[in-house]
User: Fold these one by one.
Assistant:
Number 1:
Amino acid sequence: MARRADRRPGARAEALAGAGLVLPALVVFAVFMFWPLALTGWFSLHDYSGFGDLRWTGADNYTRLATDGAFGRSLANTALFTALSVPLGVGLGFAAALLLDHRLPGRTLFRTLLYVPVVVSGVAAGVIFLRLFDPTIGIVNQVLASLGLPGVQWQADGVAALASVVVVTTWQGVGLSMVVYLAALQGVPRELHEAAQLDGAGPWRRVRSVTWPLLRPTTFLLVVYSVIVSFQVFDVVYVLTRGGPAQATTFVAQYAYDQGFNQRAQGLAAAVGVVLYVLVMALTVLQWQVARRREAV
């Protein structure tokens, strides 16, 4: 077959230039993501303590996870935490963005104050709130006492401990959701709001019928990102509750850490990482399918 004679001049040079621009990113992904992921899958098929030789066990680590009640509890805790923290963080970020999108006194200051927690490390945030939630000298219980309410044993009660983790992670995540929504709001045509207002739509109606539908792609992005982050949460929990009390705040990442570094079961910890990766990918695909069906309606 004769080669096509209508190829654009310089097409080969453009292709090579594009490949050269993409190559550094591919190298970074291969070295820091694909290769570690492949190693994790390989280690998950072995019995390995971190020292000595690998001993092939096949799917035994996955069988252990399937029958381990502690792992099942960590999965349930992670799912509950995700169900509480993701809607709360995204919803509050959306509300803050709507409010701070208007010309209000001190708008820049409030935007800064809401975004500052995003750059605070999880360890620092855990230490700060560990003092705030201290049942004896913590400010939170002192405020409750001043209102005539009983104090809460934040580290001794399972529900309270989970609530404290949700509060801290939400405090850290609202700022990012707010900034992303603020950027997306700049793309909402003002003419649509003006037309809806002329038709008699109030502020809430305009938000529900104009703003929210146009921000669905942004919401999808934030929900997917927040779900991934919630399944990986570790530092805040480790500092704030250490997974207690009675495993009430032991999440999947905490379980993997305990198995890998405290129990020296590196192969089992790697299997947890693979399961976590598969779960996050499945949830992402599910959310993507749901978003596509909504857009098609």
Number 2:
Amino acid sequence: MNISENSILSPDAEMPKAAVAVSVVIPFFNAEKTLKRCINSLLALPSDSFEVILVNNNSTDDSPQVAQTAAKRYPQRFIYAEEKKRGPVFARNRGAGLARGEILAFIDADCLVEPDWLPQLLRSFEDPQTGAVAGRVSGQGGRTVFDKFHALFTFRGPRRPQVYRRFTLISGGFPTANLAVRKEVFQRTGGFDPSLKFFAEDYDLCARIYREGFHIRYNPEAIVSHIHRNSLAGTWKQSYGFGTGHALLLRRHFKRRLIIELPRCCFESEKLPLRAWIDLASADKKLIGLLTVSLFWWPLMGLTALYLAFLFREMQTRIKADQMTSSRQETWALVFLLFFKSFAMTLGRIDGALRNRVLCF
């Protein structure tokens, strides 16, 4: 089926009435550039047992018209709703409240679902103790340096299926770009926390799912492709927000938790009476450490040069493994973005640590 980027698919026949197994919830804010493609990818799914709830969160562009057109053409498939409270948390909770399906599948308006996405999600719910299923999030495009960077370093899940039974901060949390939850479990947890308007609400929900006695299954075959941030400002905002979320989650879900991340190893303990997450393995901290040592003896600056060369080589290896291409200039730009992202996250962690009275950097 040929899917147009610029127009919603025209119906060949009246949409059949069918039982709803899955309710796909999509919040959107000024998403006219991506929402049509998202809708078309859902229309191409080889299944009738799902509905799509499109929740307008105060958009000022033409995206509400796009969503309304889909709801009028396919009234058995699409539902248009509005949420005036600003923030994706409110919009997702609004969509979940309208859902008829037993499974709530959350994606974003800048996502495209693969044809096998829905069957893979449903197959992963066969175990009644599976409270949620997380799928793989891949990057769209790969044309710009930002596309390539976020494809390599943002929302990267494991390559193999796994089952998670607890939230540890460094594992067990998943983004709402591709997260399906049993409606019953979602209701038992209270849904997304409205106090977390923009960051950490998805990982917070995962933590509460475990607390209810359920596990989360990760299925790398349930794939959506996602348009990642495509600017320095967007990358900074997202990374900084992730950092503040780390500190908040540490305070909210642990009374005792110590994590010390070092290059190629990690120490974790819940015996000591403190809440601390110290990441000494990030690129920015390694660079700062090498530059600091070099202040005491300048010949050690050579170590900094060696580290940069190592990162360049590692970046080339990652690019090749993901079957992408990159010029020398682009590869150095990717190295710069790695420092940029990790520094923004570190500052976000420090900000979050001060606000939540934990040790997190």
Number 3:
Amino acid sequence: MEYYLKQKIDQQCPNLKGLQEWIHFGLTSQDINNTSIPLSLREAMEHEYYKHFNSLVTQFEHVVRDWSEVPMLARTHGQPATPTRVGKEINVFLDRIRGQVTLLKQV
């Protein structure tokens, strides 16, 4: 960005010739990075991550429905526990992951 602005000043503001080096004084690479990196992360989340996440959730919702009656043995502390259903356990996972994404959106 700094070099771009220097070039534009050279091309469009000949009366400022020789002052381009002052651009770095007020615009360092970290000034650009501190703004552009969070912006690029936000755009990636909004335009890619959440879209794919929602698609994955939809697929899991189908699994929850299709496997709602499939029994499985639950485990607690690494030992067999009360029987449960696969669909129910996947639904618990979905509920937790949705909560985490809600928190992520707040960040």
